Target: NAD(P)-binding domain-containing protein
Amino acid sequence: MSATLQSQTIAFIGGSGGCGLSALKHAVAGGHTCVALCRTPAKLEAVFPDRPANLVIRQGNAHDADAVAACLTRPSDAGRLVDAVSFTIGGLFDPKKFTIDDPDVCKKGIASVLQALRTLRLAGAQGSPLIAAISSTGISNHGRDVPLAFLPFYHYGLAVPHADKKVLEERLVECPERWVAVRPSFLVDGGKPDRKIRVGVEDPHKGIEKKEVGYTISREDVGHWMYENLLAADCTQYNGKAVSLTW
Model:
């Protein structure tokens, strides 16, 4: 595990469900300052009825660069950028049509984050936040990272969301920011905190550094791993790389 840092300020883009919500819960419990963007704030307010002082919820759309920018500076100092960005947005999958409600959801979302950072820096904001972005296994250019039995479903059934994730990763590789692409195996519900998480590592240019292939992992455990190893930790070993997570 990476070395845990002192109190961080973390922006959550897509923190109202799934992996993002899991990471947010751990960050709030850990005492970090959390700024969460949510289209419907009532959803997050219901999760945190005690209204913790270290959680700021801002209403807005992840595809609106201005709304995203409002989450990327510290609440106590608008001249300082947050320490990390949890980017976990995704589309609603339609199993009948093998597509998602917005085929460009991640492409547009990461464009908003990168544009917001550029705009804030032009206005004088300082800092170099880590972008920890949820991607997917099955899109590597350097080798198979999913079980053979999953290949038909990944290749045909998930072609649309995977194309969006590939663009997300391409945008990260091209940008000047610090980033880590998190590639979970097939996501399921139900955390298993005592179950070992295997971590594969891939450099976008040099290829696979450590290969791990597995079937599933829970959203809860992915979010917990992101919190402990990326958002609230020194993740130098993963900077600029894709990490695959599986049980």
